[in-house]
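Entry 14. Structure prediction run on the chain below.
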Amino acid sequence: MKLTRNILLGAFMCIFPVHPVFADVVKANVAVIRLTPPLDIGYTLGGYGARMSKPAQGIHDDIRAKALVLDNGTVKYAIITLDILGLPPNVKPQVIKRLNNKEWTEENILFLPSHAHTSLEMFALNDKNIFNMAPIGIFQQKLLDFVVESLANLIDSADRDLQPVKTGTASKQISGRNRNRRGSPFVDRSLTVTRIDHLNGKPLAVLVNWTAHPTIMDEHDMWVSAGWPGYLQRELESWIGSGVVAMFYNGAEGDQSVIAGGGGSHYEKAEIYGRNMAIEAIKIYRNIQPQKEATLDYNYRIISLPERKPHPGFMETGGKEYGLNKQNIQELLDQVLPTQTSVGACRLGDLLIVGAPGELIAQLGLEIKEKLKEHGIKYPVIGGLANQWISYILSEEEYEKSGYEASTSFYGKTLGKVIVKGMLDTAIPLTKNNKPK
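Output returned:
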């Protein structure tokens, strides 16, 4: 459960749900930091075991982290987007410790990685990764220290000189840009854009939610890049101008792939795809009429996870890619994966972001969004890979079908049901004061 500033809620909060505050003037600020580490650290790029932890060979385009701090005088919240693959469970607590600021806790910070596959290897940031196995990524203390310090400095920079803002959100269905790579009929085609302006109309930030894997680049591409989400953000910042900060966050992308074409190299294909998505996003952005008052609130919940165990088909897919066998896979899961996870959700006006702590499939994401719409939320979105990556998160039916996504789902067939319940239990209290459908 969440804690608001200057109020000790204690056990009372554990019994009674938090209700959102009434619409009020929100203050905000943003900050951006270059998250590309020095190449001499020798870090690898995440997403493909076939890279065998070989160090990045160069920097094609920088990866960045961006923070939006929101405050209405009662509630304070930070949304951080990152051009990286994902975060292990140890990073967020270490960032909070490094901040050393009682106003920032695990409850009121939401990290949203883009899932870029030419960015930092997630297991290289996991200080419980003691296995020194090249296919899964080798832990690097210097890389972890760099990321933790960078993110703490980022939040600290955004948490200054907050100014009153007006906000608004809109969404549109976009066809022909993503697909379900498992052959399932479920595809999330919602492109959701949130506009945050100063009261004088000067743009401050634009948040873009779109659901698709950033996997145009493959294991042979060894130059650092933010992928197509990076191009999308840079194009929006260029077209909108006035110093606006564009922040991309993924959705329930567990089984969603891009439909990309044109270009020669993979980097060129990513640029074209990112630009095309930016064109769609700016059309939505220009039609948003931001309002001076908005509901701001958040909620947070700890969830116990099912037993950690490899999928019966793991050795044919994930095990083969990551060089694991029946003997060391269970030891790995017990060492690096948590027994519990957390779900955070934030509401800003008509927008409600609910975080998924891993790679949720679209079927489950669409189910959650529909439930929140029934509770009166106009623009519910999934924040994929939020705060920490626990594994792929599938329905029981998809888990039983096997395949790559199922083989890298590490908590058994009930995980999807557990996470969906936790996400809804976290998000629904933020829908109070809305009229259901």
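The first helix runs from residue 10 to 15.
Filed with the rest of this week's runs.
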